[in-house]
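Hi support team,

I submitted a single chain yesterday and got back a structure, but I'm not sure I'm reading the token output correctly. Could someone confirm the output below corresponds to the sequence I sent? I've pasted both exactly as they appear in my results page.

Thanks,
R.
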Amino acid sequence: MGGTDFNIDATWLIMFAFVTWTTATSVIPVRLIDSSLQEGVRLDATWPAVWVGGVVTSLLFFTCIVAHEAAHTVVAVRTGIPVRSIRLFIFGGLAEMGREPDRPSQEFFITVVGPLTSAALGGLFLALGDQLEAASIPAVTARWLGEMNLALAVFNMLPGFPLDGGRILRSIMWAVTGDVVRATRVASFVGSALGAALMAFGLIQFLLLGGALHSLWISVIGWFLWSAARGGYRDAILRQQLHRYRIRDLLRPESGAVPSDGTVQEFIERGLYHDRFGLRPVVDAAGKLIGMLEGDDVRDVPLEQRVETQLREIARPVDEMAVVAPDDLLSVVIDKAYETDRRLYFVVEDGYVLGIVDTVDVVNTLRARNR
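Hi R., thanks for writing in. Yes, this is the structure output for that exact sequence:
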């Protein structure tokens, strides 16, 4: 899917173990007993079979979550937004897009396919469960997966940012007002309120039920939603500022440039191969950019050749993805950072290196101004 990676966070193992344990010790046994009583048949299921069913059910459940995120990814890529990875973590799944949508309709269609996919999977699993022998592990797990996918679709459609429903609400507000920050503020407020309500509900239920684990988990989900909603609004303000400032406003005059006629030995003696710059611009006597250099390029030169080898001889061709213009909007370099995973970019005008822009410093500076 357009070069999208798939990552599993270590925290996901906690959720995988929890879902497996819950299905094997509660969902499957209870539903098997209920089904056998209703059908009037003898229950014939061993504990190993139940635990295998729990593991398989858990794997299928998270496969459905991946399918949900893959649906977001396919539409995002087809509409021009790169998706860096699909990640499974303790709170479920996340498609990490390279940038935010450019228009409300784009966000709407990218978002709505997720819940629709979960709803479709829910219907398919429920239909499959009806076709299988009622008092069997495959039947009860299929029906449970159907119910969970429908529940996932409903939960994600709650109108609180950053849930899918909150993003859909934002896209509608964005289309009506023409102001993405205002739309995000509304959706984030709803998301924060929903998160606070879940935290309160979970804690009250936890106290009333004498410490039920699922009640505490509701509060944890509520906290995650509350904090993500607040962070989403701050990020929206930050993105607006990225379109307000130009690169020349926040560039560093020092670029770490090295002369093309300098030797590898001089470069090493000055200790330039292990400092903060990493990738360095190589400039001629007039100060024009002619290439780029990394520390590994220098270290690869044999010892006996370092005194005579000039930096122009080992410099790499200029990578346009590492170059920005001083009059570009800051959003340009941030988009490049998402695509390339670079932190530093050369600011070049008419072939001359004016300085560098550090994307991490830029983001931190703007966030400090918003506090």
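A quick pointer for reading it: Residues 211 and 280 are 57 Å apart (CA to CA). Let us know if anything else looks off.

Best,
Support desk
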